[in-house]
Design brief:
The protein is mostly helical. It has two domains: 74 residues, no CATH class; 157 residues, Alpha Horseshoe (Serine Threonine Protein Phosphatase 5, Tetratricopeptide repeat), CATH 1.25.40.10. The strands form two sheets. The protein has a three-stranded antiparallel beta sheet, with no helix packed on it. Strands 4-5 form a two-stranded antiparallel ribbon. Strand 4 and strand 5 form a beta hairpin. 19% of the residues are buried.
Length: 285
């Protein structure tokens, strides 16, 4: 259905508003033709009698109504004397006493709040924390700062997720300190068997084995620890020392360099690496 022209709508509106005054206009014309002296009083009485009806009709004609004819036909604006004017989809129309309503309900729907982020997995949190510490260690400006970060890293390496493993490891360290390395080794064997993915167990057992003169066993444990935890700069440094002791200078140099790449601020280890570099690769020309 096409909307009528705007000019026609305005003309109809004024015609409706003043249609209630036709009795007054007709009476005035008749009295004027009769030239009666009662023209003025009668005119006033007729005007006052017709005025309320004209005002009421004018007010009613000024208030268009909004009618809905189903979802298929849509909404229409109804103007008395003109008819229904279809409204475009999504337009905003004002109805009597409504203060306006939005014909598109999707535009009025409040925005849904974003769901809270899911909690991080403990393993993921630990990995992110360790990554930050490794970065700080690599960028440390001096040896003092590096030692502080290294201590924080080592303390986290020393903690297992199992209370049983932590208890066995603590008793093994106590036995070794008390001069009972066989008991310490036995306890550490249990630790490695129960938690084969925990690099700290191999590092502790390598220490006890090296003290007992088992360099081959200690080297094997340190290599396993470095495989499980490639950032174990302490295990790599100890591995380099044992390999140098057993005559594997090339392997020792490689282990030292890996350790320094992770923790560059190891001044004493850097001096050892420089000395071994000359022995293995000669002086730079």
């Amino acid at each position: 259905m096409n909307s009528p022209p705007v000019g026609r709508v305005v003309a109809y509106k004024w015609l409706i508003q003043f249609s209630a005054l036709w009795p007054f206009l007709l009476t005035c014309a008749m009295l004027a033709a009769m030239r009666t002296p009662l023209l003025l009083p009668l005119t006033i009485l007729v005007f006052l009698g017709a005025l309320p009806a004209g005002v009421a009709l004018a007010q009613a004609s000024e208030t268009p109504s909004i009618e809905s004819f189903g979802e298929e036909e849509g909404d229409f604006l109804f103007i008395p004397g003109i008819g229904r004017i279809p409204l475009p989809p999504g337009t905003r129309a004002l109805g009597p006493g409504q203060g306006g309503r939005d014909l598109d309900p999707e535009r009025r729907a409040p925005a849904a709040a974003a769901p809270p982020p899911p909690p991080k997995d403990p393993d993921q949190q630990r990995a992110e924390e360790m990554a930050r510490l490794y970065l700080r260690l690599e960028r440390a400006e001096d040896e003092r700062e590096a030692k502080g970060v290294s201590a924080a890293i080592v303390s986290r390496w020393a903690r297992s997720e199992s209370d049983t493993i932590n208890l066995l490891a603590a008793r093994a360290l106590a036995a070794d300190a008390a001069g009972a390395p066989p008991l310490a080794l036995k306890l550490l064997d249990y630790v490695v068997a129960l938690s084969p993915q925990w690099a700290e167990g191999y590092v502790q057992r390598a220490k006890v084995r090296a003290e007992q003169g088992d360099d081959g066993g200690a080297i094997a444990d340190l290599e396993t620890a470095a495989t499980l935890e490639p950032k174990r700069f302490d295990a790599l440094a100890a591995l380099g020392a044992l390999k140098e002791k057993t005559g594997d200078k090339k392997g020792a140099l490689a282990a030292y360099r890996k350790s320094l790449a992770i923790s560059p601020q190891q001044e004493s280890l850097r001096k050892v690496e420089e000395r071994l570099h000359i022995d293995v690769e000669g002086r730079d020309i």
